[in-house]
């Protein structure tokens, strides 16, 4: 998803790349995503389905490393990386994800109407 002409995930990636200590963890997250995309079983401490409001139409997932998180949603076209965050901001990031999911659902509804 884009906001103000910029992908939401880009802000996270720019922040992470400023700290060289996080680069290996970003690689771990990408490996976890690749494994799940290829149907491999991944431990829950690396990848899990989030338990969000049942009112939300899309499934939400979290890929985890020691300090970093990637949040994804699942729709009929597959999984989409939406935002990233740090473990210290996890609760706030999940709340943000819920708001984004609601916006995405509204967008999808409007696209079907047209």
Description:
With 114 residues, this protein is of the alpha+beta class. It has one domain (2-113). It is 44% helix and 26% strand. It contains three helices and six strands. It has helices spanning 8-18, 23-37, 90-113, and strands at residues 2-3, 6-7, 47-49, 59-64, 68-75, 78-86. It has a four-stranded antiparallel β-sheet with strand order 3-4-5-6. A hairpin with a 2-residue loop joins strand 5 and strand 6.
Q: Characterize the largest beta sheet: strand count, sense, and whether it forms a barrel.
A: 4 strands, antiparallel
Total number of domains = 1
Proportion in helices:
40-55%
DSSP strand tally:
6
Strand order in the largest sheet: 3-4-5-6
For this structure, the quaternary state is single chain
| pLDDT averaged residue by residue | 89
The end-to-end distance, rounded to whole angstroms, is 20 Å
Strand content: 25-35%
Structural class: alpha+beta
Number of helices: 3
Secondary-structure blueprint:
Layout: E1 2-3, E2 6-7, H1 8-18, H2 23-37, E3 47-49, E4 59-64, E5 68-75, E6 78-86, H3 90-113
Antiparallel strand pairs: 1-2, 3-4, 4-5, 5-6
Summarize the structure.
This protein has 114 residues and is of the alpha+beta class. It has 3 helices and 6 strands.
Task: Please supply descriptive tags for the structure shown above.
single chain; 114 residues; alpha+beta; 4-stranded antiparallel β-sheet; 3 helices
